[in-house]
Amino acid sequence: MRLEEYWGIGPKTSELLTEELGVERAIEAIESADTRALTTAGLSRGRATRILRRATGAESIDLLATRDTRDV
User: Fold this and answer.
1) Domain spans of the chain?
2) Do residues 42 and 19 touch, judged by C-beta distance below 8 A?
């Protein structure tokens, strides 16, 4: 699978994730809803959350979108 097949990941984001994480690790981070890996790679928390919400069907990521979670 290519990174650009995920919603919200275009050429620039794909290049950033590939440079920082590598394709395999970036896909693993998306599939496992690893927000920390994506934000460490350079994505904003909001952007990472939106990508993960679409990639995981939103069930597991809704918790991460709360104000309390962002404060932590």
Assistant:
1) 3-71
2) no
pTM for this entry: 0.75
Closest CA to 49 of 37, 32, 33: 33
Q: Are 69 and 63 in contact (CB under 8 A)?
A: yes
The overall longest dimension of the chain from CA atoms, in Å, is 34
Estimate the crossing angle of helix 23-31 against helix 45-56, to 10 degrees. Answer: 70
Whether 24 contacts 17, CB under 8 Å: no
66-to-22, 52, 61 alpha-carbon distances in Å = 29, 14, 10
pLDDT (tens digit, 9 = 90+) per residue, 19-71? 999 999 999 999 999 999 999 999 999 999 999 988 877 655 555 555 665 56
Amino acid (one-letter) located at 48:
A
